[in-house]
Amino acid sequence: MNADLHCHSNVSDGTLEPEVLAARAKANGVQLWALTDHDETGGQQRARAAALAAGLPYLTGTEISVTFAGVTVHIVGLGFDAGDEALRRGLAATRGGREQRAREMAGELAKVGIHGAYEGALKYVGNPDLISRTHFARHLVEAGVCNDTPEVFRRFLVEGKPGFVPHRWASLGDAVRWITAAGGIAVVAHPARYRFTATEEYALFSEFKAHGGRGVEVVTGSHTAAEATRYADVAREFDLLASRGSDFHSPDESRIDLGGLPPLPSGLKPVWEALESRIDRPD
Ligand code: AMP
Ligand code: MN
Ligand code: MN
Ligand code: MN
Fold it and tell me: How far apart are CA 82 and CA 85, in angstroms?
């Protein structure tokens, strides 16, 4: 099953419209799709309508920014009721600090001689509530400061580098509860990205499960083959459902296209089997 349950539109920090992503997913052979914009469900109706019109089964999605042990962790929610009020309020609160943070990031960049970064980043923003580091990265590439966005995230915008501003996102428990109470399943996104120690990672998965979290991304555009194997073991050890998603943002930036991932390792329980009743199917 070619399920792609993680990607971004220009409602957050992707570059394509939800409708264009739906068509691209379909053309690339995706058989079950979810749009998972950061901290935002504003693109869900458009994504679902376009997917169903293209004959593509759809699950609602979002990717919530969480602060855990001082580190930003992403929790993907799948198959929730997009109209759920508590979830919408939670996402709005999580998004709320982004504009102030962006102004502070621009202030930090100005200290190293990079001026006008806030205005520059804004040119790439599709949703004024959702200015992100990705928009700054696109501006720094366009301005000739860096050659590509990976270089930006090596030299700027990350802890210890110019332009980084620490930020407090949602709590792990709140994010998992918003998703679960809205009828969805919470999934730890791209766990290899956090560079946790074994003890910290054990704490993350233990607490995640204690709050009602049920899934982990095993195969993602952010993982190497070895990391997928490692998180397949974690899924078995913690009895978590396994998810799969490209994390596609842009044809120019993303290494893995929609639908372009290898299959889940065998012997795992795919998250989509537990979400069977939540899938919207074309008539
Ligand atoms: P924010 O939510 O504003 O902190 O921005 C986080 C986003 O920045 C992620 O969702 C990615 O799209 C992007 N990002 C973070 N780290 C990297 C990286 N090393 N390379 C490319 N993009 C990154
Ligand atoms: Mn992103
Ligand atoms: Mn992420
Ligand atoms: Mn993502």
Answer: 9
